[in-house]
Amino acid sequence: FHSGEREEKCIIEDVPSDTLVIGNYKVQRWDIHKQEFLESAPGLGMFVTVTTPSAEVLLSKLYGPQGTFSFTSYLSGEHIICLQSNSTRFVALAGSKLRIHLDIRVGEHFLDESVVQAKDQVNEVNIRLEHLIEQIHHISKEQNYEREREEKFRKTSEETNSNILWWAIVQTLILISIGIWQIKSLRDFFISKKLV
């Protein structure tokens, strides 16, 4: 995505509890003379801030123009990941555009292939098996989290339906009472005018 030099951009990531989140990013600065983005932005870094659903700051750190950040969620919900450059230029002069490449991986644990190749065949199978077990645990956590969200959504839907039902009943009673009052008023009017 593109961003201004002093502009903060935030991304919302829905993460289950006890889940590792890894983010890789790379910043490129717009070169006015070449009319293209430079491959790297030397001297430019990024402030990375991660906020939990309860508005607590989980991570707040300055990184370089290219880097990796990671955190483990202890609370399930929408985590806000914000990136802002550490440019020291004044806001009026900081008109340069930035291109930020961001890759966020939720719940992944990577196998180091060089370590796997260095081990013998039995250890390789053990490492791969442990990796698969980790992935199974992550999928199980993800399913539990989705069940919780679905249960909250169902509860909210049922409460809304109940409120709509009661509102419909109240409206019907009001309309019936107004109708009865109009009939009584018309009858009294006709009786007073001696039309009936």
Automatic annotation (TrEMBL):
Domain called GOLD: residue spans: 8-106
Species annotation: Chlamydotis macqueenii
Domain of life (superkingdom): Eukaryota
PANTHER family: TRANSMEMBRANE EMP24 DOMAIN-CONTAINING PROTEIN
Alphabetical UniProt keywords: Endoplasmic reticulum, Membrane, Signal, Transmembrane, Transmembrane helix
Subcellular location: Endoplasmic reticulum membrane; Membrane
Tagged with keyword Cell wall biogenesis/degradation: no
Protein name per its UniProtKB record: Transmembrane emp24 domain-containing protein 11
Topological category with respect to the lipid bilayer: Single-pass type I membrane protein
Record-linked InterPro entries: Emp24-like (IPR015720), GOLD_dom (IPR009038)
Transmembrane segments: 164-183
Keyword RNA-binding on entry: no
Membership in a protein family: Belongs to the EMP24/GP25L family.
GO cellular component, one term: endoplasmic reticulum membrane
